[in-house]
């Protein structure tokens, strides 16, 4: 019986169809390092290389603010990268994508009305004949402070 030995995964990734994927991943890693070096602090911490396709480098920024700053630096960044680190970039696109781990929460402010306003809304609700409006006023009155 033949004995099995552990072998490095890189041995198989460097061959066949997977080799293009590995080559592309290495190219993206080199570009990420080059972009990090070319951009000023703190912008370089808010920018990520997404892809390179047909001489177009696609970058992402954490927020619209960082994306705007990055767009302003595109000509300088393109010149720096074309000098030494990339395969003749023709275009740089910027996408906005929140950083992973950032929770986007939208909280509604809690609605409260004074006790006196709640009483007035209840009285008004009782006097109005329109059922939809009466119901809406009663719901609003339910938010009155209980003190």
Please outline what is shown here:
The protein has helices at residues 9-13, 18-38, 64-72, 74-84, 115-127, 131-141; strands spanning 47-53, 56-61, 91-96.
Query: Using DSSP, what is the number of strands?
Result: 3
Shape: elongated
Oligomer: single chain
Q: Report how far apart the termini are.
A: 84 Å
Biggest sheet record: 3 strands, mixed
Domain count: 2
Describe the structure.
The chain is built from six helices and three strands. By secondary structure, the chain is of the alpha+beta class. It folds into two domains: 80 residues, GMP Synthetase, Chain A, domain 3, CATH 3.30.300; 38 residues. The longest helix has 21 residues.
Observed structural traits:
147 residues, GMP Synthetase, Chain A, domain 3, 3-stranded mixed β-sheet, elongated
SSE blueprint:
Layout: H1 9-13, H2 18-38, E1 47-53, E2 56-61, H3 64-72, H4 74-84, E3 91-96, H5 115-127, H6 131-141
Parallel strand pairs: 2-3
Antiparallel strand pairs: 1-2
Helix pairs in contact: 5-6
